[in-house]
Design a protein that fits this description.
This protein is α+β, with helices and mostly antiparallel strands and 479 residues long. The chain is built from 18 helices and 15 strands. Helix 5 packs across helix 11 and helix 16 packs across helix 17. The longest helix has 23 residues.
Length: 479
């Protein structure tokens, strides 16, 4: 098995060396007549030919492999996991740990959150009393990840044994054996697979996982990488009364995604997207940024994730740092010149003017911005100067599925596909931010038109109900 895998992975090198040997042997024979050497320049010519050919081959093969997204899948839970706001409030009351003041606070948060009336939570949370055990947390992760992978393998017709790289990310739930080990065990993946389990990296880890898989695929050409993103609600429930830690209970919902990346050149024709850029920005050197999303114990030693009041400002400032690196990669020359002009005026001429925000609508056709919450999306829309149409995938994903953490950007791309918005040549910007504090980007090029009628998509059966009219969305979230 290992010898077969080595031969397949290095087939281009083997074919090239064989061809070079045949050519060299043929050239040598041409300089001999009746076993007598008749051309003293033969050796020099052969060496020059082999050297030039090898140099050309090295330049060709040293180029980074192109990375393709063959397909992806988002898990849609069953009706038994469907949860309304009223059910959440009822369960919160039955928990018994909330003070009357915080019960009222949670009700207000839900009204203002942008999360709609039909989202999903694990069955364990809906039971009376709720089951918050390790076994129940494992069951939640297995249900989500196995469901997403089953759907993906069916879509792509790739066998589990063909997958050479596995990257799983989940921020707060890290059992032993790991979630990646559970995938290997369930699908009987091959023994030499490269597996990685990313934890504690927040809602931006979905893009981090893609970037990591890209680097692995470039180091291991002609391979498949399976990238899984999820969060575990059972294990992340906060059972205390610190107001700064209650927001996560209100926003996060059940969900997960699976994506199949390939470095096989032959997969271009059947892949949906090509990865053009992946970019990561980390501003954790600053203490305020580092601590704005922080897992810790409250005053009663109950573990939860606290959200700082500085979070919105940290996200805004991190975005500014991020786009200074992203802009030169994707923006047209006209926008680059405007940005440089503004920079010179502010830094050199010391004029008191606002920093110029480039028009990213000239660089991207679709925007998939992480569903951190209504307030976060409002801030991103204002900062990037996007209209409601371009923010629609993010807002409707938040409304329908809630904050599914690192997998949210894939539900948003699914929305774009289900609406028939993705056309060949379109560029898609997936951007996520999370604890640390990090802002990460993946830029995809659509390789084909996405026909919504032929897609197996979590939105397919209800896409005609969206978007929810913005005046209804806004009035629902007033308070």
């Amino acid at each position: 098995m290992l010898k077969h895998f080595y031969v397949i992975s290095n087939i281009m090198n083997i074919l090239f060396m064989s061809l070079l040997l045949v050519i060299a042997t043929t050239c040598v024979s041409c300089f001999y007549v009746n076993d007598e050497y008749c051309n003293p320049q033969a050796s020099t010519l052969i060496k020059s030919f082999c050297l030039a050919t090898s140099l050309v081959y090295y330049i060709f093969m040293s180029r980074p492999n192109k990375i393709y997204l063959v397909d992806f899948s988002c898990y849609k839970p069953g009706k038994n996991c469907l949860c309304t706001k009223e059910m959440l409030m009822e369960r919160a009351k039955l928990f018994g740990f909330l003070s009357e003041e915080n019960f009222i606070l949670i009700n207000k948060i839900l009204d203002r959150s942008g999360v709609g009336p039909k989202t999903y939570v694990p069955e364990g949370l809906l039971q009376i009393p709720p089951k918050l055990t390790l076994d129940e947390a494992r069951n939640e992760s297995n249900l989500v990840l196995f469901g997403a992978v089953d759907d993906l393998l069916e879509k792509t017709c790739v066998e589990a044994k063909d997958i050479g790289i596995l990257v799983v990310n989940c921020c707060l739930f890290n059992p032993t054996p790991s979630l990646s080990d559970a995938i290997v065990n369930h699908y009987k993946l091959r023994g030499n697979i490269l597996i990685y389990n990313l934890s504690g990296m927040g809602c931006s880890a979905g893009v981090i996982a893609v970037d990591f898989a890209k680097q692995l695929l470039q180091a291991h050409p002609n391979s498949y990488a399976l990238v899984l993103s999820t969060e575990n609600e059972i294990s992340s429930i906060y059972k205390g009364n610190n107001p700064s830690m209650l927001l996560t209970n209100c926003l996060f919902r059940m969900g997960g995604s699976a994506a199949l990346l390939s470095s096989h050149p032959s997969d271009r024709n059947r892949s949906k997207y090509q990865l053009m850029h992946s970019l990561r920005t980390h501003v954790g050197a600053d203490d305020n940024s580092y601590k704005c999303v922080f897992q810790e114990e409250d005053e009663k030693d109950i573990v939860g994730v606290s959200l700082s009041k500085d979070l919105m400002n940290v996200a805004r400032d991190a975005l500014r740092v991020h786009i200074t690196s992203l802009g030169p990669l994707v923006l047209p020359i006209s926008e680059k010149l405007k940005y440089v002009k503004n920079l010179i005026e502010r830094k050199v001429l010391k004029r008191k003017i606002e920093a110029y925000m480039p028009n990213f609508k000239l660089a991207f056709d679709q925007f998939c911005i992480h569903t951190g919450g209504r307030a976060v999306l409002d801030r991103m829309q204002k900062s990037l100067e996007l209209d409601d149409y371009l923010m629609e995938p993010s807002r409707m994903t938040l409304y329908r599925y809630g904050n599914t953490s690192s997998s949210s950007i894939w539900y948003e791309l699914s929305y774009c596909e289900a609406k028939g918005r993705v056309k060949k040549g379109h560029k898609i910007w997936q951007m996520a931010f999370g604890s640390g504090f990090k802002v990460n980007t993946a830029v995809w090029l659509a390789l084909k038109n996405c026909d919504p009628t032929s897609l197996k998509n979590p939105w397919r059966d209800e896409i005609d109900d969206f978007p929810v009219p913005m005046h209804c969305y806004r009035s629902m979230n007033k308070g």
